[in-house]
Amino acid sequence: MSKSIVVTGGTKGIGRAIIQKFAKEGFDVFTCSRNSSDLQQLKADFELEFPNQRIYIKTADLSQKEQVDDFAKMVKSQGIPDVIINNTGVFLPGSIHLEPEGNFELMMHTNLFSAYYLTRAFTLEMIERRSGHIFSIGSIAGLTAYSNGGSYAISKWAMLGFTKCLRQELKEFNIKVTSILPGATFTASWEGVDIPVERFMKVEDIADSVWSAYNLSPYSVVEEIVIRPQLGDL
């Protein structure tokens, strides 16, 4: 029976690179996005490249709890996944005292609450099964305060705290929990900036790091991976 992975926000950037990496290793995939046309394109590309594997897609805005629940129900209809990648996120720059009303709520609901609700949807079954690996895609913004980070940075600090707590709760049940904390990675978030591509990390490097952490023996877990551009943060 094929193993399966859930990747939220899987149509672009880091999420898509992780899907590609795990699909090459024989995993079936569950993913979601707010953009249905991007999902359909991902599905078509996946089925062309991996004709013997399955991909399940759902249009969902994970800033809305009801849509997180609906996505989880879709996944559960096919079983309990082996790996969960909490990747969905949104970045709106701005200082705490100047950013528009609603930025805080949007980024907390998208970047943090989605991971909280989705993880809760599967943990009891993972505990009963005594296996699984949960990854949170955070950011170095969750380690280092910087100007113009605003609510995004707050959400990523909270995401790291959530993941640390989850690690302590689940370790006795043989469930691994890992925080991935990347620096500037060349994704759609950076489109249009006047910075050489060479200054960014590649999404494939993040995916390779996730795969490496997943492949440790049952006796070890990588709790945190901090990945930065070779020439330093942007």
From TrEMBL:
Q: What is its EC number?
A: 1.-.-.-
Give the matching InterPro entries: NAD(P)-bd_dom_sf (IPR036291), Sc_DH/Rdtase_CS (IPR020904), SDR_fam (IPR002347)
User: Where do the coiled-coil regions begin and end?
Assistant: none
List keywords of the entry alphabetically.
Oxidoreductase
Q: Does the keyword Transmembrane apply?
A: no
Q: Which domain of life is it from?
A: Bacteria
Q: What molecular function terms (GO) are annotated for this protein?
A: oxidoreductase activity
Q: Which PANTHER family match?
A: ALCOHOL DEHYDROGENASE
Q: Which family does it belong to?
A: Belongs to the short-chain dehydrogenases/reductases (SDR) family.
Designated name of the protein: SDR family oxidoreductase
